[in-house]
Amino acid sequence: KHLIAETSFTQSRSSLPLCPEQPPHLVGKMNIKPTITLQEVTNEESLRNLSYGGRYAPPYCQAREKTAIIIPYRDRKEHLDILVRHLHTVLQRQQLEYGIYVVEMALPTQFNRGLLVNAGFRTARGISNYTCYVIHDVDSLMTDDRNLYRCGSQPIHFMTGSTKYKNNGIPYYDFHGGVVGFTPEQYLKVNGFSNLYFGWGSEDDDLGIRLQYFGMRYVRPNDEFGKYVALPHVRDVSNQESPNSYGLVRNVPARQMQDGVETIGFKRFALEYQQLYTWLLIGVKEDE
Ligand code: UDH
What we know:
The chain is of the alpha/beta class and 288 residues long. The chain is 27% helix and 19% strand. The protein has helices spanning 2-11, 38-41, 44-48, 77-93, 113-127, 184-189, 203-213, 245-249, 252-255; strands at 55-56, 66-73, 97-105, 132-136, 140-142, 156-157, 161-162, 179-182, 227-230, 266-273, 278-284. A hairpin with a 4-residue loop joins strand 10 and strand 11. Residues 71-76, 111, 113, 137-139, 177, 200, 202, 204-205, 236, 238-239 line the site of 6-aminohexyl-uridine-C1,5'-diphosphate.
């Protein structure tokens, strides 16, 4: 059923002119505070424009990028509700064609951000031919819509700073957490994330090492555009620091081709096309 709907979603726009390089309706800096409420962030019109599963395409022009937003997720419903509404408003102004994929880890498995993103990448790729995958933490809100969620010739680290960190910056120079963007070719070349980081850990550092190995490097947007507001939360009980992550980051090249998006063992318990997003519930193979 979704294949038929997919064809009609894509075909009707192939005769439209290309959207302008600079989206004309951007507002620049937005007034976003960590205390922002659901009501403040909701723009009803942007929600009315959606197709099933939280999909959108500009009505009068062909988007320059077709972006899948992948949100690794568990038990942060308040944040999720705010983030997806914010994204729908901003991404429509950016004239992107996009879909939002919320990838939730089923209990009782410990949270594993890398594995969820790999599962989300594979599922979204099976649904449509996205040209850019933006991996997005659930607690981080973009504050300037000139930070376009498009991909480039190198992977992009969209976050130049967050209210989560000192001086609204990033915690260390090589930090690549929060929000990153990959073309499917870039993501597949490095074999995506490792699947081995259960708990709160360094899966993002592991991915950075994978890039280096293939001569790639993250680029960042203009510092002014890349600031995020973090919605406050405490460390989750089910996401304690991973005890073996330190050992893992030391041997990335040795295992990166055997441990990644191509070799992931996951079980998809659910796939639902909800109004504001496509929802996946993911477990690991041993849960069967
Ligand atoms: N997440 C959930 N539920 C959980 C745990 C994590 O949804 O129970 C997701 C969510 O998208 C979140 C992301 O995973 O935004 C990252 O988890 P976090 O918000 O707990 O991470 P934190 O803000 O740190 O504590 C970000 C990385 C900083 C250190 C990088 C070390 N390499």
